[in-house]
Amino acid sequence: MLKVLLVDDESALLEIGKVYLEREADIEVSVCESPREALEELDRSRFDVIVCDYQMPDIDGIKFLEIIRRRNSRIPFILFTGKGREEVVIDALNKGADFYVKKGGDLKSQFAELVHLIRQAAIKRDMEEALEYNARRFRSLIEESFDIFIIMSPMDVINYISPSVKRILEYDPEELIGMNLSQLLHTDDVRIFERSIERLSTNPGVIDRFDLRLRQKIDGWKVFEVTGKGSIDPKGKTEFIFTARDVTELRKMMYALQESEKKYRAVTESSPCGIYIFQDGRFKFINRRMIELSGYSEQELMSIDYLELIHSSHRQLLKTLTERALRGELQGMPMRVEFIALKKNGEERWVELIPSIFNFDGRPAILGNVIDITDRKLMEEELKEKTRELETLLDSIDTQIWCATDPETYGPVNKARAEFLGMTKEDLKGKKIRDVLPSETAEICIQGNNIAFKEKRIYRSIEWISTKRGKKKLAITKVPVLDEKGNVRMLVCTAHDITEEVGGGGVKSVLKKQRNKNS
User: Fold this and answer.
1) What are the E-state strand segments in 327-408?
2) Which residue in 153, 200, 422, 518 has its CB near the most CB atoms, within 10 A?
């Protein structure tokens, strides 16, 4: 429903305008005979669009518009005026009006145009707010990221660099804008960067990954894992977007591995994870934990076909992911993979693999971390089984039990509740209460839910419910469930059929008990 504030010092025109506009099912009109009255109304209520006359005593339409904009209000404003002079229209638009409509002529056509502009103004406002929201969200993600984001021209000029560069490399973003990115590169890495630009220029849409060393402002170098992609800016010009992640410490560990496997083994042997290096279809390095996890000796693992360590149900998946990773096809690759591993004795164990790609002896290799998650999987399955048992238990009792995920929506329900309402549990979950219960009953139910949600307390009531088997009287209890922040996450509701218990004077007695419990 669009709420429109119509401002005009002619009461007759206000009445006509309200009648015409409210013929539209989605428009609700409030009227004011002066801007001062309208300002008071704006303090009390929220409106989607303001439609205002130009010529009014004391404060005219444009002055009223200026007051609105000085309040930092961006509510759409339509000037509805008998003055069609160009300078008035230009002044209004310059002051922040969205549209104007000239009075006079055929009322039907005039108000049809006004209705159209009201809708257009509301749509425009919604789109602007959505764009601003997305822009703020994107800016927040960029500015708070631990990565450095760079937008660069084909001429190697930095057009944008994210504020995180201050935290990571100690440069202010402003001092880097307009510089050549290559000025920050280690001499040995310039050619790597140039080759990446060549690839991105000739292969639109391709994502390139490589390591670069960037100079810190004060002293020293940091190693970054860089992801680059070519793009086209709004003006149709080519630009390159790079994301640089500080991997200095990680690369130090990898370089140490390349220089001295003995030093690296000292680190990996104490790890609770299985660690390996995989290249050319064979393991190049394994730690002690990998031997324990697999049941094979080090010599056996170094010569075995890695697919023999994987259950047949997951073998093709791991084969595909491994081949893609070593070809550098990293887009869309999962960060973690869970699968069933086979030990030498045939025992099946669930493991989680966390792989990363790096250069080993000058060629791509996989550095894998393997964690045994069998116990976790068993616990998850046990939890699922207990959930099924609980569901079976709840379905075996006559008490109706259900959840409300918000005041108007059903969550999970038990069998008794579903059968009482003549529906299946699956169909009832997620249904709006108004779509299930008769109108009057639904409103009573929602009213009770609102009280329990807002006041965060148990709510009890007696409600008549119409079903296919006739009207039933239920004693209902609604218990709020709070999250860790103290907000109501949902309601757990129970209902008992007390139709037979409340005959005659018993009704008043039950109602009195329910009121006493609520108080």
Assistant:
1) 337-342, 348-360, 363-372, 400-406
2) 200
